[in-house]
Specification:
The protein is built from 2 helices and 10 strands. It has about 150 residues and is α+β, with helices and mostly antiparallel strands.
């Protein structure tokens, strides 16, 4: 009986020490509020290798719909145009949250039940913006919702 308990305890201990496996795939999303525009792409490869791009513009003078539409197109173009230059970087993953290696601030949060990601974007001294990203099989030319 003791041997069985020792084996079960050892297996439990090993399982508790193993690193969680991050999801693999692609996600995209956008943010628009009070003149701030962000278009984001995220690609996760095995071993928490992360490619991410999230160009942003903050211009409170953009208030009418034609100007907002032009800025959305500009952001989509910037996102697609720069994607080929984005290099994969390692991140620490605890099963839910991605952080820069040895970092404290969350960069990305994963909801395993919905397979949705939340990107944390830090703009200056403002609190982090939380941008929901949805899974995609291929990135779209226009990530803005229609």
């Amino acid at each position: 009986m003791r041997a069985l308990l020792a084996v079960m305890f050892g297996a439990l201990l090993l399982a508790a020490c193993s690193k969680p496996t991050p999801p693999v795939g692609r996600w995209e999303g956008t943010y628009e509020s009070d003149g701030t525009f962000i278009a984001a792409r995220l690609e996760l490869a095995p071993h928490a290798q992360v490619r991410i791009s999230a160009p942003d513009v903050t211009d409170p003078s953009i208030t009418n719909e034609p100007d907002r539409a032009a800025m959305r197109q500009n952001m989509a173009d910037r996102l697609a145009g720069a994607w080929g230059e984005v290099e994969a970087r390692p991140m620490d993953f605890d099963g839910t949250t991605f952080r820069k290696p040895n970092g404290f601030a969350p960069q990305i949060e994963w909801n395993s039940a919905s397979n949705m990601m939340t990107l944390y974007v830090y703009l200056g001294a403002r609190p982090a913006l939380h941008i929901p990203l949805h899974p995609v099989s291929e990135f779209s030319a226009d990530p803005w919702p229609h």
